[in-house]
Design a protein that fits this description.
Distance between the termini: 40 Å
Radius of gyration: 13 Å
Structural class: mainly beta
Number of strands: 11
Number of helices: 0
Low-confidence stretches: none
Shape: globular
Helix content: under 10%
Order of helices and strands: EEEEEEEEEEE
Largest sheet: 7 strands, mixed
């Protein structure tokens, strides 16, 4: 069983930056596709960004140009650098790993990001 632990969430003012980290307990981490999702209060969980084992990155339109997903296979860690934060970015952010036929197999417990106006 793979465990994912997110960190880095905080309260930040609009226009500020945060970097989220997610450490995975997986011996074959380098083979996994990885993703970041977010869930705002009363809303569904939405995809934010993904990165493949080959470092191909994709972003939802609302964060394109502001957020950057990256990975460090030596540290079993995936990052989400978030710049120019907006109040609408407020959500619990989750990392996910190992894309399969039914979506990502493993999920973290989330980290809270709150952006004040």
């Amino acid at each position: 069983q793979v465990q994912l632990v997110e960190s880095g969430g905080a309260l930040v003012q609009a226009g500020g930056s945060l970097r989220l980290s997610c450490v995975a307990s997986a011996s074959n981490f380098r083979l996994y596709a990885l993703g970041w999702y977010r869930q705002a209060p009363g809303a569904q969980r939405d995809l934010v960004a993904t990165i493949t084992s080959g470092d191909t990155r994709n972003y939802v339109d609302s964060v394109e140009g502001r957020f950057t997903i990256s990975r460090d296979n030596a540290k079993n860690t995936v990052y989400l650098q978030m710049n120019a934060l907006k109040p609408e970015d407020t959500a619990v952010y989750y990392c996910a790993a190992d894309w399969g036929a039914s979506g990502f197999k493993y999920w973290g417990r989330g980290t809270q990001v709150t952006v004040s106006s």
